[in-house]
Amino acid sequence: MVGEGMTEAVRTSSGKARGGNGARANGAGKATAARGLRVERVWTTEGVHPYDEVTWERRDVVMTNWRDGSINFEQRGVEFPTFWSVNAANIVTTKYFRGAVGTAAREWSLKQLIDRVVKTYRAAGEEHGYFASREDANVFELELTWMLLHQVFSFNSPVWFNVGTASPQQVSACFILSVDDSMDSILDWYKEEGLIFKGGSGSGVNLSRIRSSKELLSSGGTASGPVSFMRGADASAGTIKSGGATRRAAKMVILDVDHPDIQEFVQTKAREEDKIRALRDAGFDMDLGGHDIVSVQYQNANNSVRVSDDFMRAVENGDGFDLRGRLDGEVIETVDAKELFRAIGKAAWECADPGLQYDDTINDWHTCPETGRITASNPCSEYLHLDNSSCNLASLNLMKFLRSDGSFEVEKFVKSVEFVITAMDISICFADFPTEKIGETTRAYRQLGIGYANLGALLMASGLAYDSDAGRSLAAAITSLMNGTAYRRSAEMAGVVGAYDGFARNAKPHARVMRKHAAANDAIRALGTVDATILEESTKQWQECLAVGEKNGWRNSQASVLAPTGTIGLMMDCDTTGVEPDLALVKYKKLVGGGSMQIVNQTVPRALRNLGYQEEQVEAIVEYISEHGHVVDAPGLRPEHYSVFDCAMGERAIAPMGHVRMMAAIQPFISGAISKTVNMPESATVEEVEKIYFEGWKLGLKALAIYRDNCKVGQPLSNAKPAKKEEPAAVAVVTPEPQKVIEYRPVRKRLPKKRPSETVSFSVGGAEGYLTASSYPDDGLGEVFLKMSKQGSTLAGVMDAFSVAISIGLQYGVPLETYVSKFTNMRFEPAGMTDDPDIRMASSVVDYVFRRLALDFLPFDKRAELGILTAAERTAQLREENGEAPVDLTEMASSAPVEKPAAAAPVKEEPPAPTAAVAPAKAAHSSTELLELVQGMAADAPLCFTCGTKMRRAGSCYVCEGCGSTSGCS
């Protein structure tokens, strides 16, 4: 696709004239003096429609409720290409098909979805003068169709939600707002944020203009400070989030490091995490989505501190740092920079917040400083630009450009970037926006966010370690080529339909940033033939970008970001999202007709072949990985190749600095920033967190966040209330009856030869077992046998010995409630979801066993004291708290046969968000859960609010592999 006719387009004088669908004439109007873009075929064949090149099939998409098995979505006979995975088809059907299910208006084919979007883009491109002829527009339409059909790229979710429908044509996923030091502005913030959340998108805001709690109001009183106003915004986000929008609300709150309230801001979420732990230990339901979690504040936002170079140098030198008033800039307090930095690191260590944003680096790469500084970001931190603006995203699937011989399709990649960036710019012509201020800024500055997914898979398939110089060199070259091509195409479009409205006042700084990108490209050192070829082309693209841009200017003030690519990554059947490495070497693949199978990622055998292994060796290594989940000691695999298969989690997890170094390698070639969280092990120290944050500044990152495993509260909790608030239910005081007090000379009371017993089968985190409990004739528990299946002789032997020890203790008079109080909440693998309706989650097999025994053999008052209730009892208790007629729980317990767990009806509870390994009963339903089952690793992630499947990290957000829901941008 090439640009011709680089003369300045004729534009209207005002940017406020509306088109029929929210379009603006200025900058996007029909070009009367330009000849438009000539479009060449890349992927398609003349005379053959892309739909006719593939084989189509009909499928049934049926989504069941994870809690009770009921059907919560069903659409039969949907049409997809045979090569689309079941997971990708399910996500597109449930999330992107428009129209009421069961009506004629409902979309049922991928053809309808693609046509709805692509034809809208083509029509807008023709209307606003982008194409030289109708034939060019036709080729553009067919090429986009082919690329979307074959999963070469995808637009962000709002495009699929809205474009071509009767809804407002919102195409942006990322928004930045602004707040001034006035109540009108603060209330406008609440309203604008709510409108954005309602549409399923996220926003970010910097609160540093609001005066601190240490400054005075004009009336003479003391100001509330920004932290107090965060409470109201947090409550609003929590309310809208639970209202059933397309996606959960996502938000970012930022405060400058020199704000007088910075110390309070840093501690907000850490203090609330302490509150969560205290309330949890007191017996309250503090799960994510739990009944009592709403009492905790600041949980609906990511928090970040904007640090300056002056502050970081003060930290480095051990100097003091001034906190300044918002009204007059006067110094209010001088703090020790190292102590403040330590507080930031400690809070992040405790609860993962706050992250850091490096202000001077961000604004040094800002193309429009004459318009205003960059003060904030979107929730995932990849979009950084002007206040009251938005960015629409699209991501390329890098694996589609990797040839079988390991080389990279450079020419097709360049052409694909041209197609995608052109389409993204066209979308601004017809797009609608949640507020007029955002619409005006976006149409005037035309911020775009092209990016990619599958980088981790590409590196592994190429036989390169993620944390290696060669891996970083290839990643940098690809990213530079993408950004250089995008800006070169932007300069060509400026010659056809005009530069962005704000370009004239920002021409010099914009050109300066382009030269910075080009200089960074020149600094890349190729370490292989593949990256050398890519680097040669990227150098050419940057040279053309500077030459054409000097003549025409640029159409877009921003071109690229690296987003999490959560839902759209699954839509494109990507193994890895955004800039992330592979999560694990094994994954689950859903099958047509239901069910799933465990497979080794297909990038593994491809990598082995590129490394020179023979087919027999590849088969043996893949079989070993399938069984063990890692490559250590795999037969025939050379130790020097282990690092190629390092993943985000597992036996050989990539070190935190490996993630930071990869971000540093590609940051100079991204207009915005990178959505990525640096995962750290639970054993990481506060000093290590500080080092990561400090090195991020040194290496030139724009934003950085960390997450330490298990730093958040998320284990399953009981809804039972403690008898007294000062006595936590989890540490219940046991007052055994006199006859059951352990005597100095205990007498063993053996069970008769023939005794009543019952067996309960169970599953905890996918591990199946059988619990047999035998009673004395007077109904007292006297014997326990615990058998675990498919777990190996060691665990089975340990469980046998444990059962004998417990049984002897019971026969010697140890009260059951003593065992229950000691062994419940014990935490180890396997752990997670169970198939017991009364005990939905267990932190270990031992935790489950003693909760089950308590429900079967202890009276209600003892169980309530221990915080162990049946599902029916919890339901009754919740109804009473909600104002319904009280129920006598003691009478309910006595009237129900407690020894039969099936007697308790299952209750639909809000899904918890455990920090430990979570897997559905008897089988994993996602790659994250499979990883935990195979490797015994705990992953800190919430359960999906939509379908209950455990989510996994995608950049700074989470994505559900089951239904495609995300907690941020995609």
Total number of helical segments?
28
CATH topology of the largest domain: Anaerobic Ribonucleotide-triphosphate Reductase Large Chain
> What is the terminal-to-terminal distance?
26 Å
* The CATH class of the largest domain: Alpha Beta
Name the beta content range: 15-25%
Function: Catalyzes the reduction of ribonucleotides to deoxyribonucleotides. May function to provide a pool of deoxyribonucleotide precursors for DNA repair during oxygen limitation and/or for immediate growth after restoration of oxygen.
InterPro entries: RdRp_reductase_class-2, RNR_2_N, RNR_lg_C, RNR_NrdJ/NrdZ, TSCPD_dom
Domain Ribonucleotide reductase large subunit C-terminal: 172-707
Domain TSCPD: 752-855
Give a written overview of the molecule.
This is Vitamin B12-dependent ribonucleotide reductase. It is an enzyme of class 1 (oxidoreductase). Residues 172-707 form the Ribonucleotide reductase large subunit C-terminal domain. There is one protein chain. The chain is an alpha/beta fold. It has 3 domains: 2-171 and 375-570, Anaerobic Ribonucleotide-triphosphate Reductase Large Chain (Alpha-Beta Barrel); 179-364, Anaerobic Ribonucleotide-triphosphate Reductase Large Chain (Alpha-Beta Barrel); 729-735 and 757-903, no CATH class. Mean pLDDT is 84; it is low at 1-33, 242-247, 714-743, 897-922 and 935-939. The chain is globular, with a radius of gyration of 30 Å. Helices cover 38% and strands 15% of the residues. Helix 2 packs across helix 11. It is built from 28 helices and 28 strands.
